[in-house]
Amino acid sequence: MLTTIIYRSHICDNVSVKSLEEMVAGANQINSRANVTGILLFNGTHFFQLLEGPEENVMEIYRHICRDQRHYNVVELLYDYAPARRFGKAGMELFDLRQSEKEEVLQVVLDKGTSKYQLTYNDRALQFFRTFVEATEKENYFEIPAGDAWEFVPDDEVVQLGAPLKSTSTEYSFAFQPIIDPLTREIASVEALLRTPDGGGPQAYFAGMQGDEVYLADLHSKKVAFAMAGGLNLHEQALSVNLLPMTLVKIPEAVDVLLAGIATSGLVPEQIIVEFTEGEVISGFDAFTGAVRQLKAAGISVAIDHFGAGFAGLQLLTQFQPDRIKINRELIKDVHTSGPRQAVIQAIIKCCHSLEIAVSAVGVEKAEEWMWLESAGISQFQGHLFARPAFDQIPQVAWPEKKADL
Ligand code: C2E
Ligand code: MN
């Protein structure tokens, strides 16, 4: 099927414009052989390329392009199918936008095309040409350095927290994972993640249970989480725990149980964030809002966890505004290379900003993901890049340090 990929990238400093002619000549041959056509626009800093052809061949060439050392910050903007090629004349044609008058340049580009209708029918691919040529999206091009520009250094000296107390329960224990602000080098909060006494994960834990047993375990495990967290010496840091919305519905005295556990452990309700998973919120929305009212009345904050994974997305925020949302790994994975992910995350950030909802990113594994998200305005992160959850302990945080320019 005729497949189109459009990407944008940034030319490396050491690449001369002259050498681009050679590069294009080489690309032309490879592309022609693979029956791939397209156009490459260059504005002096950025490339913008459209590739069209059989799906496998386009993908193969794109993978090759992504590895090319002559450019960086490659962001895929469009991946789509079409009935006919828009730029079917050449394997690859280079077009330097600076050589045309500003007013005419879009038309000059479109005139190189072979599509029947140009911009008549609102073709997304050609609309991308318009935004690139007119540079209307430029503020969203975050120029992030290569991933290896930072080192992640475990820091013994900045120990901001104490060690959790040992679990006295024979049923549950917890792993702890910090949520950090990497640039101010502060731990913003700590999340308690349910574990079996020998360290098994929450899925394994709940899997063997039936009916209301799940909710009882969910609730009563929190007493253990609070007791263990009593050893952390939390000051301005928050403690996050996860709860199923139905736990608060099925057990009428649940909030009182939580409050008692919080008080016994020397914590205050204002320090506690209860995280609800987006998918579970949507499937029992009325029950959820009832539960939330009780928590808020007690001074406890509410977060929507796994935001973006439950298919409600922004619509959920029209019905209910939590104190914070946690953007899920499914959305942030490789965000630095994906135009659609970038657009969705920017919309989430903008929306939460208008509503004064705090935003954090969970599951950050790559330096580039972190840098892109930081450029987009997120400052709180949780992920293996900085600290993995540690069973029965608080892990060391690996803080980013910029490597000196060589
Ligand atoms: P969550 O609340 O989003 O917790 C973060 C999960 O992501 C944890 O998995 C953590 O180990 C994992 N994680 C953290 N950083 C990274 C990363 O960089 N990459 C990847 N791939 N994963 C990362 P865990 O501990 O297995 O927990 C899974 C889920 O189980 C939690 O997701 C939470 O929704 C649920 N859960 C945990 N504890 C409880 C609990 O006490 N009650 C309830 N109802 N659910 C819980
Ligand atoms: Mn969570």
Describe the structure.
This protein has helices at 17-33, 55-67, 105-111, 124-133, 202-207, 213-229, 245-250, 254-264, 278-283, 285-298, 314-319, 329-332, 339-354, 367-376; strands at residues 2-11, 37-42, 46-54, 71-81, 93-96, 150-154, 173-181, 186-195, 238-242, 272-277, 301-307, 324-327, 358-362, 380-382, 390-391, 398-402. By secondary structure, it is α/β, with parallel strands linked by helices. It has two domains: 2-140, Alpha-Beta Plaits (2-Layer Sandwich), CATH 3.30.70.100; 147-402, TIM Barrel (Alpha-Beta Barrel). Strand 2 and strand 3 form a beta hairpin. The protein is elongated. The two termini are 47 Å apart. Ligand C2E is lined by residues 177, 193-194, 201-202, 218, 221, 242-244, 275, 277, 305-306, 329, 362-365, 382-384, 389.
List keywords for this structure.
406 residues, alpha/beta, Alpha-Beta Plaits, TIM Barrel, nine-stranded mixed β-sheet, 25% strand, binds ligand C2E, binds manganese (II) ion
CATH topology of the largest domain, by name, is: TIM Barrel
Average pLDDT, rounded to a whole number, is 92
**CATH level-1 class of the largest domain:** Alpha Beta
Number of domains: 2
Q: Which regions are unreliable across 5 or more consecutive residues at pLDDT < 50?
A: none
Rg (C-alpha, Å): 26 Å
Q: What can be said about the biggest beta sheet?
A: 9 strands, mixed
Helical residues, percent: 25-40%
Name the overall outline: elongated
CATH architecture of the largest domain: Alpha-Beta Barrel
Secondary-structure content class: alpha/beta
String of helices and strands: EHEEHEEHHEEEHHEHHEHHEHEHHEHEEE
Bound molecules: ligand C2E, manganese (II) ion
